């Protein structure tokens, strides 16, 4: 391993820049290095640098874990907020020296950067919910992710390519995916209202994203500040959009939008569960949009379900549905089969919030690029689209209908009963949970 060393004289709240010869470690090129010590405000030190991949494998899916040394001493990983970087560009490592012999003011030091570990094709992002530290894993991590750790103390996210990616275009021969349902099968319990709301459209997603492998569990919810009686790997339910993200409207009479009104604003309340995971990681986690949820769930399938139902009878479809959905409110996540992209518990688990707003029971899908949902005047209260379905047992037309991927359930963000355009909605807060997502910019 080639070590990359830069020398600095550090002073109180002062930055020093190394603009000398560009050096390379394991195919990663480091330059424009700046070191800032914040003493006496605090003990943290920012190590900023620009990184480029130089061995012909440049990719946003390539990640590296950096080893940092001061002089001839390797710094403990525990003293950094995070040592993983992904892709190219400007990066920052934050070092908070512990009481290990370093003085409050560091003078005349040499900083060494080296690639300690590398993932050439990122398949997963893993977050330690307590500390916010994150790491990247290869696609082979699919064989390890279904264990208690990633259902309780950590949260795992699967990389989902955009529809403009080479992977999607090579597999599908187009740069869109089909959202919604054609509603042609008359034996699946599909209603006229479903056909109206779920009409198909062509959606382009220009940004890749990380998508939760599992719905948020009760233990994960508790680690993010939520109050729950049992802390285990069972999906958290009975949680409203507002409680997870922040109150979405301030005045139900005149429909004035509140400070957490997506897509007018991406801000979430700081002490909400999503606010906490954002502050701990520095990443802008949120619910997926309806389009992102359905795209990740379909994994290339354009039929009604997680699988190709053509030629299957309703009894065969029901049997297949039961291989993907636990259909039990006491089951831990990950007990049934994942979809083709390794995502678990998309059906038969809980309704799952999306950020997509829908203010009309007859709102249809439309061809779009990166749709974020409507910016609505709320009137009687904001409604969001929930995807997935809660536990449904015994087969029958209800299970066949609601466990379709295109199924849309409108839910008030505060999960209260209400009327929307003359249609009475009964809140299903007890059946509603969530799954997080992270949209990427590269």
Overall pLDDT level: 87
- The total beta strand count reads 26
Strand content: 25-35%
Q: Output the radius of gyration.
A: 24 Å
- Seen as an oligomer or otherwise, the chain set is single chain
Q: Approximately how much helix is present in the residues?
A: 10-25%
Principal-axis shape equals globular
Largest sheet: 5 strands, antiparallel
Give the helix/strand class: alpha+beta
Low-confidence stretches: 1-14, 251-255
End-to-end C-alpha gap: 28 Å
Task: Specify the number of helices.
Answer: 8
Walk me through what this model shows:
By secondary structure, the protein is α+β, with helices and mostly antiparallel strands. 14% of the residues lie in helices and 29% in strands. The protein has 8 helices and 26 strands. The chain has helices spanning 166-172, 192-197, 218-223, 241-245, 273-281, 290-298, 314-324, 396-402, and strands spanning 4-8, 14-18, 23-25, 28-37, 45-53, 63-70, 73-74, 84-86, 89-95, 109-119, 122-128, 134-138, 154-160, 177-179, 201-204, 209-212, 249-251, 256-257, 351-357, 368-369, 383-387, 409-412, 418-420, 423-425, 432-433, 437-439. Strands 1, 6, 7, 8 and 10 form a 5-stranded antiparallel sheet that branches. Strands 2, 3, 4, 5 and 9 form a 5-stranded antiparallel sheet that branches. The two termini are 28 Å apart. 43% of the residues are buried. Mean pLDDT is 87; it is low at 1-14 and 251-255.
């Amino acid at each position: 391993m080639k070590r990359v060393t830069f020398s600095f004289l550090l002073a109180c709240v002062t930055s020093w820049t190394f603009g000398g010869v560009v050096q390379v470690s394991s195919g990663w090129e480091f330059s424009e290095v700046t070191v800032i010590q914040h003493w006496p405000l605090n003990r943290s030190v920012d190590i900023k640098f620009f990184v480029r991949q130089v061995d012909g494998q440049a990719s946003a899916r390539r990640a590296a874990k950096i080893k940092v040394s001061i002089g001839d001493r390797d710094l403990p990983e525990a003293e950094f907020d995070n040592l993983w970087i992904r892709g190219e560009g400007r990066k920052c490592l934050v070092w908070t020296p512990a009481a290990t012999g370093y003085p409050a003011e560091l003078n005349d030091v040499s900083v060494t950067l080296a690639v300690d570990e590398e993932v050439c094709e990122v398949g997963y992002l893993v977050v330690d919910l307590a500390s916010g530290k994150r790491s990247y894993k290869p696609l082979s991590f699919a064989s390890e992710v279904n264990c208690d750790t990633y259902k309780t103390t950590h949260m795992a996210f699967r990389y989902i390519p955009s529809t403009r990616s080479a992977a999607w275009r090579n597999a599908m021969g187009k740069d869109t995916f089909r959202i919604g349902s054609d509603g042609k099968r008359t034996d699946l319990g599909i209603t006229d209202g479903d056909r109206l709301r779920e009409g198909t459209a062509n959606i382009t997603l220009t940004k890749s994203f990380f998508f939760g492998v599992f719905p948020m569990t009760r233990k994960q919810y508790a680690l993010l500040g939520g109050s729950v009686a049992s802390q285990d790997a069972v999906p958290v339910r009975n949680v409203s959009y507002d409680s997870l993200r922040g109150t979405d409207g301030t005045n139900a009479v005149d429909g004035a939008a509140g400070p957490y009104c997506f897509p007018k604003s991406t801000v979430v309340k700081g002490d909400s569960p999503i606010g906490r995971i954002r502050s701990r990681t520095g990443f802008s986690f949120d619910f997926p949009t309806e389009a992102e949820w359905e795209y990740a769930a379909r994994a290339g399938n354009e039929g009604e379900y997680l699988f190709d139902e053509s030629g299957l009878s309703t009894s065969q479809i029901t049997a297949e549905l039961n291989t993907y959905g636990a259909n039990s409110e006491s089951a831990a996540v990950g007990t049934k089969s994942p979809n083709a992209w390794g995502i678990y518990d998309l059906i038969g688990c809980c309704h799952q919030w999306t950020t997509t707003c829908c203010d009309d029971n007859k709102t249809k899908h439309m061809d779009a690029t990166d749709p974020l949902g409507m910016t609505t005047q709320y009137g009687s209260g904001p409604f969001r689209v929930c995807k997935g379905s809660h536990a449904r047992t015994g087969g029958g037309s209800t299970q066949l209908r609601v466990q379709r991927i295109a199924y849309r359930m409108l839910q008030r963000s505060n999960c209260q009963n209400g009327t929307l355009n003359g249609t009475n909605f009964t809140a299903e807060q007890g059946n509603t949970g969530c799954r997080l997502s992270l949209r990427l910019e590269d």
